[in-house]
Queue: 2 jobs
Job 1
Amino acid sequence: MNVNIDVAGESYEQFGYSTLKGTNPHHKNEIAIGVNVSKKLNKDIGDVVEVYIYGKKQSLIVTGIYQSIANASYSARITADVISGGDFGNSNEGMYFINVHDSSQSDQVVREINEKYKEGLEAVTQKTSIDSVFKVAVGLLILPMSIMGLIFIVVTCIIIYSTCRIDIRKESKTYGIYKSIGMPANRIRMSVALGIAALSVIGTIIGICAGIYALPIILEQTLANYGIVKLPLVMNWSGILPIAFVSIVSAVFGSWLSTRVIAKTAPRILVIE
């Protein structure tokens, strides 16, 4: 296998790197591997893997397994002690992290590095790096799912409208009798809308439960090839409940539109139809 290897001179935890199982490497003979590397090599915590770094063979003990969308989890983590000082110093490409004593000066440090080395390297703050990752996540996952959700809401309104129109056509005689005995058209329309609302509430509750428990499993299976096996979804009820309410309103609105024919048509015509 040809994998990307991250090297840290200090603890990985200081940079915010976590693991799904076990711990990050802390000693010269330790290594943490990505989930896809673990699957392909059938290696788990405590197993020994052979790694060739700059042509030099290393036998390292797996101390942790992690997930990362970068390199689709075909990567590994080692400490700087694994690489001799000469070899590590001759590495002229890669990504390096620098701890700044005063975090408020990070922007200034980045600016000075970029001015000094110009095209030789590119320095960015950790905040900029994290923002870029979130932009990718929004573009690949959140935005498409939001568009799909909007489409589902529109389709729901159309389906409810069509279904109610068919039902009104079948039951037009009944509605005509109701109107002929003095029942207001808006009351008939309201009864139909309330029936749809009740069904929508039941469907929404089922949908929320499916979204909380089933959706993460489906997404994890879909994203497994991209190196994500445990999706860190945050259930924000301040967002879930309003969207659920919108879906109910969409269904009720579709049924209300479909019953306009009851208000516009005379009772005698409804009975004849």
Job 2
Amino acid sequence: MPRVIGIDIPGNKRLVISLTYIYGIGNALAAEIVEKLRLDPNMRAQQLSGEDVSRLNALLQSEYVVEGDLRRQVQNNIKRLISIHSYRGLRHRLGLPVRGQRTSTNARTRKGRKKTIASKKK
């Protein structure tokens, strides 16, 4: 299991798929990174040499915002919305859907603990 920027990526999967296990890297970004480093996208992650892993670490730390930095950035954005008392910040604070979804149904998981709903009276 290769260790990239502090994250163990699965060694038995293709390199492009393994890179998506890092927070902030999706399919398109993983393909772009493999292309930049001129690695074979179909090779397994466990076939990476030590030099390849170090090149990958250097590229991710210098050019991309991933893992801890990205998580911190997202949390700071949410805290900023809450502190300026915006509508989105209020929704975050209450644990409700932020992006305009309906709340009369299907928003149960965002609201926290399970709340029993009274059944229809006959």
